[in-house]
Amino acid sequence: MTERDLPDADLAPRQVPSAERTEASGRDVHFGRPIGVAVRLRSILFFVLYNLMGIVHSLASVAVAPFQTFEQRYRFVNLWTQATMWLLRRLNGVEIEVSGFENIPPNEPVVVLANHQSQWETFYLQLLFTPQATVLKRELLWVPFFGWALLLLRPIAIDRGQPGQALKTLLRVGQERLAQGVSVVIYPEGTRQPPGQLGQFNAGGAMLACRAGRRVVPIAHNAGDCWPARSLWRFPGTIRVVIGEPIDCADETAKAVNERAEEWIRATLERL
To answer: Stretch 139-148: mean pLDDT, rounded?
Structure first.
């Protein structure tokens, strides 16, 4: 990973089918990118190796968990995350560039608000903010092997089918995690968006930060360009992550904090 300034570029949000075939060339494309033979083969190999590593490491994580503290479990589980990033770079040609490291408050639990384009950010942000509790739908904990490892990280599992109860869970458990010195990572769009787009922000994360008296750290990235949501394909390229300056909730309403984070993420995405 390298840290550098991001190039300024105009990238208008676009809406395109997740996969289509161009009439002129007859080539398959995904969000405007051609899916060549090399991309297909490397993506399938990544999928196989990634899942095999996950199954083996999840079983190992469950086996050693009783003998570890939470911090030790967190680091051990995320060995799979580090291996996944290494495999993605070496096999699929995906590089990572991060700017704004100085905006991560040292020794201070924060509420992280990030845009949601891929599965990639749910892994990588665990390495940037350690330890952390991620807000996720509870169904993920029911997935064999992977769900077991996720449970060891003490995430904040919510029932998206009951929004009112989900907000109560977020505020109650989120404040507990922050009081324990654990940052909380939230994807306020709620669902993954196509590259170049930003969904409507839910104010639950900002509300948690304001109630707990913690700062908000906004994050923008373009992970969907290389690891698209709901897709098998992994495209070579560079995932750029920008960490924004912390937003203080003092004398601010949750609505205002949420709007500031959304505006910053939207403006940063336009440069990516």
So the answer is: 92
Contacts of 239 (CB under 8 A, 6+ apart): 94, 95, 96, 97, 120, 124, 221, 222, 223, 225, 226, 227
Q: In terms of DSSP bridges, do strands 237-243 and 216-221 run parallel, antiparallel, or are they unpaired?
A: antiparallel
- Characterize the bridge pairing of strands 28-30 and 20-21: antiparallel
Q: What is the DSSP letter of 50?
A: H
DSSP state of 124: H
The pLDDT tens digits of the residues spanning 7-35 come to: 332 223 333 334 444 433 434 666 667 88
Supply φ then ψ for residue 34, to 5 degrees.
-70, 145
Phi then psi dihedrals of residue 228, to 5 deg: -65, 150
Distance CA 89, CA 214 (A): 35
Tokens representing 193 are 């968006």
| Mean pLDDT across 122-138 | 93
pLDDT at 3 over 80: no
How far is 145 from 27, CA to CA, in rounded Å? Answer: 37
pTM for the whole thing?
Answer: 0.86
For residues 99 and 241, is the Cβ–Cβ distance under 8 A? yes
| pLDDT for residue 161 | 84
The label of the residue with tokens 């991309």 reads 39
Give the C-alpha separation, 185 to 107, whole Å.
16
Q: Quick check: 5 pLDDT over 60?
A: no
Task: Decide: helix, strand or coil at residue 231.
Answer: coil
CB-based contacts of 261, cutoff 8 Å, min separation 6: 113, 188, 201, 206, 216, 218, 244, 247
